[in-house]
Design goal:
Keywords: Carbohydrate metabolism, Galactose metabolism, Metal-binding, Nucleotidyltransferase, Transferase, Zinc. The chain has 390 residues and is α+β, with helices and mostly antiparallel strands. The chain has seven helices and 17 strands. The chain has two domains: 218 residues, HIT-like (HIT family, subunit A); 156 residues, 2-Layer Sandwich (HIT family, subunit A), CATH 3.30.428.
């Protein structure tokens, strides 16, 4: 292959091969090849004339809540629902200068318009060093009017397939297992970066959620703080017991809200579900993140997760928009108490109806639910039973 990129190759679990290189502006790109992939070992060089990477965004603290708000103004210029011949996540062609130079199975790369990063206290690819980095969790927890910090961190795009349309649920079991291996690899690598406090893989699916690209993909955010949602969880654990999440799982496993169960994982509609469609998927063993899953847990997760997602799509005659959020333990706190889990939520409450967050939910975080969790679980069990096992 002419103009072949210089690659570092690593063999991962389940026969997955990882190949590492860089894009024209210095961003990292990783190819994760399926076991037995038909792709060769070489990959093309990214020869695009790209602009320098943007300056790192800035965070401002809301003193009334303590939350840190990132201002990433470059994200205003993102591509919106391109056609197949202009898909920025498809492999590059002579007419489409996309983000991925070569054909791939799974590809992961640094986002060109990130909410966090790209600088991590050092000059990378023409980006100046972070001028006002975070100074640890105690610094972030302090309150003050007008406090700012540089949004150090990292945002990565995970392309599930080179195809223009689809989702995680439309992949094969083999491909799902490759993606899980990629999530585990990136979780470990991002957790080791300086200044990172939490790593969050997720998939936004559907225009009702605000998706701007139809290409099957997800993202990974590496935050410079522990997210507000996780802070609430840590507080609940502190006020109850260190094994709170194990207790929750045992409570749910004996309920009529279970929708899918394996040897290592259980999926259930939670007792106090907020959304019309809300499912959690939790490992039976205490595991803080993807990197800590063993081979048996990863192997079972691939087909089980596909069953769940295809069941969600079988609820109605058209695909369901959702957020598939993989909550993981923070990097430096709560590793022994916060168990990783999926929280899949959708605002779809009927074939042609969505739940909108209006006054009470949006302004006060005081929720009213229209569907009982037990009813939602029964509907989802029926939908899962109607599909063919992946």
């Amino acid at each position: 292959m002419e103009n072949s990129a210089e690659l570092r190759t690593d063999e991962l679990g389940a026969g997955v091969t990882k190949r590492s290189t860089r894009l024209a502006d210095g961003r990292e790109l990783f190819y994760f090849d399926d076991p037995g992939s038909a792709l060769g070992p070489e990959r093309s060089v990214d020869a695009r004339p790209l602009e320098d990477r943007p300056d790192t965004a800035t965070m401002r603290q809301d003193i009334l809540t303590g939350d840190w708000i990132t201002f990433a103004t470059k994200r205003q210029n993102r591509v919106m629902m391109p056609s197949a011949d202009a898909d920025p996540l498809a492999p590059q062609t002579a007419t489409n200068p996309s983000e991925v130079p070569s054909l791939y199975d799974v590809a992961v790369f640094e986002n060109r318009s990130p909410s966090f990063g790209p600088a991590l206290n050092e000059a990378i690819g023409g980006v100046p060093a972070a001028p006002n980095p975070t100074r640890g969790l105690d610094d972030l927890a302090a309150l003050g009017i007008g406090r700012t910090r540089t949004s150090i961190g990292r945002c990565e795009v995970v392309c599930f397939s080179p195809e223009h349309s689809g989702s995680f649920g439309s992949q094969s079991v083999t491909r799902a297992r490759t993606i899980i291996e990629a999530w585990a690899d990136r979780t470990a690598a991002l957790s080791a970066l300086p200044g990172i406090e939490q790593v969050f893989p997720f998939e936004n699916r559907g225009e009702a959620i605000g998706v701007t690209l139809p290409h099957p993909h997800g993202q990974i955010y590496a935050y410079p703080y522990v997210t507000p949602r996780t802070e609430r969880l840590l507080d609940s654990i502190d006020h109850t017991a260190p094994d709170l999440m194990a207790r929750v799982l045992e409570f749910e496993k004996t309920s009529e809200r279970v929708v899918l169960q394996g040897e290592h994982w259980t999926a259930f509609v939670p007792f106090a579900a907020r959304w019309p469609l809300e499912v959690q998927l939790m490992p039976h063993r205490h595991v803080p993140d993807f990197a800590a899953l063993n081979d048996a847990e990863r192997d079972e997760l691939a087909p089980l997760y596909l069953q769940l997602l295809r069941g969600v799509d079988a609820l109605y005659n058209t695909p369901t928009a959702y957020i598939a959020a993989w909550h993981q333990a923070p990097v430096n706190v709560g590793r022994d108490t916060v168990r990783m889990r999926l929280e899949l939520t959708s605002p779809r409450r009927a074939e042609d109806k969505l739940k909108f967050l209006a006054g009470s939910e949006a302004a006060m975080s005081a929720w009213t639910a229209e569907i009982l969790p037990e009813v939602a679980a029964e509907r989802l069990r029926t939908a899962i039973a109607s599909i063919t096992t992946p």
